[in-house]
């Protein structure tokens, strides 16, 4: 392969990879200079001239003419007067000689290696460009197609055929993708792994929900409405605090849309995730009341030092405040930045299908019942409405004790 063939094949490959001309020339020059350094141990006195369009390559070695008796005669950038005059008889000491160097002079193996090196440099550049391009797109929604499904992740192709990765941990639990399916996700993070860019997508990130709202609600893009905070239990429930900068616009109504027209598409995309849109306020008590909706709070007690609040509710509101599996109270706490503890206003209130904890005194020790009542849980269903983790956090009971209590209470309702 001569220089013309090498440059033309490289140019075709570079154009296929959408590499611009200046970058192409820079890569070519870098490779040819590396070849020169291998043979001459330096490239500082060499000029490399490349014409990509014509496939021309010129390499010139610049040498300073010194006298035959000079101590510098053996330097790589010097030539003795006698040798210089063999090239041109009128050369004098101190003048510069330019010697043409042909690519073929480096040997066939070196030229073949140069061709492989050029292609590898293009691939490395392509990886770096992909890395930088997606680093700038972190937080942006991507539409792709599922190419492969594995136990750990889904490999997604973008419109240019680049491989993106959607790990199981970043998928909504109800997501079920097959090869060829379309998928929407947000660019979560971009990293280099063993020299290869790894673009990680997410459908569980609050940013994904934020971008979906921006797509559906023009007022957000226009700056009339701002999303202040989003908290999620992906695929289950989310709370979104919004604020309007125009008194004429109801931020909640704008986000939900007429008859839910705007939010329905978001809910479907998130596998029917239940989304509560809340009007943000700097009034903490009102903000907490809105965050615990649909429950209605009777009163609150704050411990600002520990960032905790005790919410006092009527018995029929406790389960609403806590929510399924404790989701409502957990998300409300994350939204407002306070730990929320729920207490019953009337400890004697027991619904018809509920059972007072005192009814279990033959199976549950009295001090355990008192500890549960201390945090406002005086019926079986009020205890079952909380998760084991929440009960451990809010009471002084051991995890094993709580497991026993939950098992006893569940058995009671299973028997019914």
Automatic annotation (TrEMBL):
Gene Ontology biological process terms, A to Z: DNA-templated transcription termination; transcription antitermination
What family is reported?
A: Belongs to the NusA family.
In its keyword annotation, does this UniProt entry include Chaperone?
A: no
Localization per Swiss-Prot or TrEMBL: Cytoplasm
Task: Please name the source species.
Answer: Flexibacter flexilis DSM 6793
Read off the HAMAP family from this record.
Answer: NusA_B
- Which superkingdom is the protein from? Bacteria
State the oligomer form and interacting partners: Monomer. Binds directly to the core enzyme of the DNA-dependent RNA polymerase and to nascent RNA.
Which named protein is this?
Transcription termination/antitermination protein NusA
Q: For this UniProt record, give its keywords in alphabetical order, as a comma-separated list.
A: Cytoplasm, RNA-binding, Transcription, Transcription antitermination, Transcription regulation, Transcription termination
* GO terms assigned for molecular function: DNA-binding transcription factor activity; RNA binding
- GO cellular component terms listed in the entry, alphabetical order: cytosol
Known function: Participates in both transcription termination and antitermination.
Q: Which residues form the S1 motif domain?
A: 139-204
Q: Does the keyword Transcription regulation apply?
A: yes
Primary localisation category? cytoplasm
């Amino acid at each position: 392969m001569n220089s013309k063939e090498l440059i033309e094949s490289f140019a075709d490959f570079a154009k296929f990879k959408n590499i611009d001309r200046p970058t192409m020339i820079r890569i070519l020059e870098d490779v040819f200079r590396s070849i020169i350094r291998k043979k001459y141990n330096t490239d500082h006195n060499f000029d490399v001239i490349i014409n990509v369009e014509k496939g021309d390559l010129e390499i010139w070695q610049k040498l300073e003419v010194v006298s035959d008796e000079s101590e510098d005669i053996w330097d790589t950038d010097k030539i003795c007067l006698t040798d210089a005059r063999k090239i041109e008889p009128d050369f004098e000491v101190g003048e510069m000689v330019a010697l043409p160097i042909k690519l073929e002079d480096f040997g066939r193996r070196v030229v073949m290696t140069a061709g492989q090196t050029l292609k590898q440099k293009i691939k490395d550049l392509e990886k770096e460009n992909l890395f930088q391009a997606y680093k700038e797109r972190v937080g942006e929604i991507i539409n792709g197609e599922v190419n492969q499904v594995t136990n750990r992740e889904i490999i997604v192709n973008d419109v240019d055929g680049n491989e993106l990765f959607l790990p199981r941990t970043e998928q909504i639990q109800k997501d079920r993708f097959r090869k060829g399916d379309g998928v929407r996700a947000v660019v979560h993070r971009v990293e280099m792994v063993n020299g290869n860019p790894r673009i990680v997508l997410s459908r569980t990130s609050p940013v994904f929900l934020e971008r979906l709202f921006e797509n559906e609600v023009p007022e957000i893009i226009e700056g009339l409405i701002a999303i202040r905070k989003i908290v999620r239990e992906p695929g289950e429930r989310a709370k979104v605090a919004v604020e309007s900068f125009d008194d004429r616009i109801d931020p909640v109504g704008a986000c939900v849309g007429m008859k839910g027209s705007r939010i329905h598409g978001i809910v479907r995309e998130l596998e029917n995730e239940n989304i509560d849109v809340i009007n943000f306020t700097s009034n903490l008590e009102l903000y907490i009341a809105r965050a615990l909706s649909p429950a209605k709070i009777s009163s609150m007690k704050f411990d600002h030092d520990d960032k905790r609040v005790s919410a006092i509710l009527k018995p029929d509101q406790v389960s609403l405040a806590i929510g399924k599996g404790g989701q409502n109270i957990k998300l409300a706490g994350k939204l407002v930045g306070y730990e929320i503890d729920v207490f019953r206003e009337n400890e004697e209130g027991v619904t018809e299908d509920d059972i007072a904890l005192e009814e279990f005194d033959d199976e549950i020790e009295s001090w355990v019942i008192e500890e549960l009542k201390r945090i406002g849980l005086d019926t079986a269903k009020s205890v079952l409405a909380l998760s084991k983790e929440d009960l451990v956090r809010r009471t002084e009971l051991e995890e094993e004790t709580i497991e026993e209590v939950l098992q006893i209470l569940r058995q009671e309702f299973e028997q019914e």
